[in-house]
Write a structure and sequence with these properties.
By secondary structure, the protein is mainly alpha-helical. It folds into two domains: 3-65 and 235-337, no CATH class; 72-226, no CATH class. It contains 16 helices and nine strands. It has helices at residues 37-40, 45-59, 72-76, 83-86, 120-129, 154-161, 171-181, 186-200, 210-213, 219-226, 243-250, 260-271, 277-294, 304-308, 313-320, 325-339; strands spanning 8-10, 18-22, 102-106, 118-119, 143-146, 169-170, 207-208, 257-259, 301-303. A three-stranded antiparallel beta sheet has the order 4-3-5, with helices on one face. Strands 1-2 form a two-stranded antiparallel sheet. The protein has a two-stranded antiparallel ribbon with strand order 6-7. A hairpin with a 7-residue loop joins strand 1 and strand 2. The longest helix has 18 residues, at 277-294. The radius of gyration is 23 Å and the shape is globular. This is Calmodulin. Residues 50-64 have a biased composition (Basic and acidic residues). Residues 46-80 are annotated as: Disordered.
């Protein structure tokens, strides 16, 4: 994982006992001391953690890769969407999709294997560093295929956007394209799409072809002009040493909890590692390896109390990234002193 991501394993509810054990991404799993929550319920903690880890491995397509994909429970609050889709971001680097060329995953015949879009550079990095599995839905693929702009090659653009290969895009597929390629508030479009749809689908077929989508009179051109641009810039992110503020800042859906994929996204944006897919995978692996220690009730999320515990998830994140709170406070004091006007010395 590298020195920047060394992680001593903690137990979430034992402040005095820690295990001097370090985990690399290829060795997921955490062993808890015998006086933890599960032991108090007359259960063997180590056995329970191992069983949970084995179940997680069986659910993955590859035991060599660690993912923070969305489970059914995690996606329910967002209507089944991965956190990256909800924010119109690349599922690898969590930067806005519309800022760069996108790519999709295809099989040997060139047909789409899943509905997800990534940045083209990130999709190729996934192939190189992680393997042939979509980082969002874990569906296997053969290769990544760059998606041209409609103005460059409308036929190829439509073919790659047509996940089902039936020559039509339904409303959900159109929304997926909008989230990936147009910097507008997709939620507003989702609310209006029912009333707008009839203009391009007068026969109420429930799907649109290429002619209805692209061009000067197409739905996508109308959406681009009618709805104002919307891209959020994260300029004033609280430092992770301010655990309470950091948690509340990244709990953007006000659910009171942070799920695994939300934590991964928050760490990538906090520490500015968006351009290094291999490093991002280390972060995914670190979060996955320690998650079961803190999510003791298997709820899929960590609430504020669990996050703030001494030796809890917040402290573990700081340890993993070698964050020294005293050094951070000293830097703030130095910066404050440098901004203060110097008083003239008395003679």
């Amino acid at each position: 994982m590298g020195a920047a991501l060394r992680l001593p394993t903690h137990t979430a509810n034992s402040n005095k006992r820690q295990i001097a054990q370090h985990f690399a991404p290829a060795i997921p799993g955490v062993y808890e001391p015998p006086n933890d929550y599960l032991h108090r319920k007359n259960a063997d903690a180590t056995t329970a953690v191992l069983e949970r880890e084995n179940e997680r491995r069986r659910s993955r397509r590859s035991t060599d890769d660690v993912w923070c994909g969305t489970s059914d429970d995690e996606g329910s609050a967002r209507g089944g969407l991965h956190v990256s889709e909800d924010h119109q971001e690349c599922g690898a680097c969590f930067e806005p999709l519309c800022k760069e060329r996108t790519a999709v995953f295809v099989d040997e015949s060139g047909a789409r294997t899943c509905k997800h879009f990534l940045h083209e550079r990130c999709a190729r990095a996934v192939c190189e560093h992680i393997g042939s599995v979509c980082p969002i839905c874990r569906t296997a693929f053969a290769s990544a295929r760059g998606v041209p702009f409609p103005t460059e090659d409308a036929n190829e653009w439509f073919r790659l956007c047509d996940v089902d290969g039936n020559g039509k895009l339904d409303k959900e597929q159109v929304l997926t394209v909008i989230r990936a390629q147009i910097p507008v508030d997709w939620r507003k479009i989702d609310k209006d799409l029912g009333s707008l749809w009839a203009r391009w689908d007068p026969e109420s077929s429930g799907a649109l072809g290429k002619a209805q989508l692209v061009g000067a009179d197409g739905l996508l051109e109308f959406v681009s002009k009618k709805y104002p641009p919307r891209l959020r810039e994260y300029k004033h992110v609280p430092h992770v040493t301010d655990k309470r503020a950091w948690f509340k800042f990244w709990d953007e859906d006000d659910s009171g909890t942070l799920e695994k994929d939300e934590v991964v996204r928050a760490l990538i944006k906090t520490f500015g590692i968006k351009d290094d897919v291999a490093h991002i995978q280390d972060v995914r692996s670190m979060v996955e390896s320690i998650w079961c220690v803190f999510d003791l009730d298997d709820s899929g999320g960590i609430d504020l109390t669990e996050f703030l515990l001494e030796d809890g998830l917040g402290d573990s994140i700081m340890a993993a990234f070698a964050v020294d709170k005293r050094a951070e406070l000293a830097q703030k004091e130095d910066a404050k002193a440098s901004r203060s006007p110097k008083r003239p010395q008395k003679k």
